[in-house]
From TrEMBL:
Pfam families: tRNA-synt_2b. This is Aminoacyl-transfer RNA synthetases class-II family profile domain-containing protein. SUPFAM superfamilies: Class II aaRS and biotin synthetases. Keywords: Aminoacyl-tRNA synthetase, ATP-binding, Cytoplasm, Ligase, Nucleotide-binding, Protein biosynthesis. It comes from Pendulispora albinea. Residues 240-394 form the Aminoacyl-transfer RNA synthetases class-II family profile domain. Gene3D superfamilies: Bira Bifunctional Protein, Domain 2. The keyword Electron transport does not apply.
Amino acid sequence: MQLRSPTQHLVLPLSRTVDAELASDIEKHSVYVSEDLLSLSVVQNEPRVLVGYKDGADIERLQEKLSRYLDAMLARVRRVEPAVHYQRGRRSKAIEHDVFPKLLERGWAFQHGRGMVSLSGPALTLSRVIDETFARRYRRSYAAQDRAYPAMIQAELLARCGYFEMHPNAVSFVSHLRNDFDEIESFRAVNEGASRLNVTHGGAFAPIQHCLNPAACFPCYEAFENHRIGAEGQVLTWPARVFRYESSNLVGLDRLWEFNVRELVFLGTDAFVQAGRRKAIALIQEILDDWDLSGRIETATDPFFATVYASKAFWQEAMDVKYEIRLDIAPKSNGTARTVAAGSINLHGAFFGERFNIRDANGEAAYSGCVGWGLERWVLAIFSQHGFDVQKWPERLQERVLAERDDS
Ligand SMILES: [Zn+2]
């Protein structure tokens, strides 16, 4: 008997060669193309992709779907070079590899499921220090007010924010059983004594009206609907739980389905929001200096779904509305440098002001902007750059971690 490998391969041509950034986006977004697709990689400097697929897959259908996907992604013509707005190196060149497995080994992280991780010990303390450091600075330098919002969000609100048309692939939907005695009882009966979930049929669930929030700031615009912002502007900050489904890209601490964010939102005039962004950049530079972290702030784009990727990403880049802070982590096994996007600084123009009828002091649609830091990615970058021995960390970071530990 001949054993067949469960993975088959095929090579597909691209209409042109692509730069490294587009190649990485093509690879990243390919996880949503087909359940038969196991891997897709762009051959370096060649107009070809290498595709791995499940044994028994309908190759013709897969190939046809892939070619539509690749056409959509290749429609993107990069005309704007990604601008680096700030760059910082650090004293040591040492870098810790395999941080996530090492955290698991030490019992400082626990994997609950795909994309679901909890922290404990020094890793948890560190995530609190990161969160509180930003929160305190926001209160001090922006007079930011504290808020807290639910992790669930009404589907209707996501629709109004345009999320379903831009990132449908990333949404986590919430439902419940229909209010029907017989449906609930038959669901109960098939799950009696079961050690996994049994679903009788899809119709047992109520129509979806809720989701898990995929972008920290959305609930805040709803709370300001039909409000007028004073001349001094409005700044809010809160810790948020954010959910983004990323299929097989969900691995380690850098790609979580559920993650924690320290969010900051400014609402007011265009000038007020622009000033808020400048201040946020200065503040992140201070923190990178204090904690001796290497990284950079650069122009970025959101991970739009393939069919709208080309137009939206180009627009976003050209308008210079999204910056990302990228922190260095261990390079790939082939030596290629790696960074993790530890957060973003975003300008929304008057988009939310118009959709939610939020007015500035002059009666115009208010402008908004937000800054979100992904705490788990900061944790990953700090352990990567400074190792696991807190005693050897930069003094100002070490002080904060030791103080936080004594408090808890
Ligand atoms: Zn936001």
